[in-house]
What we know:
Blueprint: H1 3-29, H2 36-68, H3 77-103, H4 109-142, H5 145-162, H6 167-182
Helix pairs in contact: 1-2, 1-4, 1-6, 2-3, 2-5, 2-6, 3-4
Amino acid sequence: xxxxxxxxxxxxxxxxxxxxxxxxxxxxxxxxxxxxxxxxxxxxxxxxxxxxxxxxxxxxxxxxxxxxxxxxxxxxxxxxxxxxxxxxxxxxxxxxxxxxxxxxxxxxxxxxxxxxxxxxxxxxxxxxxxxxxxxxxxxxxxxxxxxxxxxxxxxxxxxxxxxxxxxxxxxxxxxxxxxxxxxx
Length: 184
Ligand SMILES: [Fe+2]
Ligand SMILES: [Fe+2]
């Protein structure tokens, strides 16, 4: 698998979790009870799998290589991707805070969660589309086969260091489990 194929596969997992999150929002708006443990694990998935690991691979490895190959960061598409990661991080942080407030039974936690989740869903959906259709094909064009192989090695290393061995599997199991509960 090439580095951008690997990242696109991760996009599929992230997109599935965004669908689960949307369903969770619909339930919360209908005042249905949602297991707070599920909310915590969903936020954890976005914080660790999507941000730390997936965005980490893009920010620390793929995008810098694309920059070296001549694609400008400032005022260019790479700069936009970085800014969107930062914005997404703020939404995930706010979702996490809302879950804590909700657990403590404080008012507004529910609304705050749904609002930030919806913003995150729309941000990340269009972000992923841009990467799949514009950024990644650009990377494929400018990076040699050798550079791409190095990146795949770098991705493996980053995964081991940043999230630890076996975590990728754990997150896929979580996806599967929540899919059964919310999307059937
Ligand atoms: Fe990204
Ligand atoms: Fe991405």
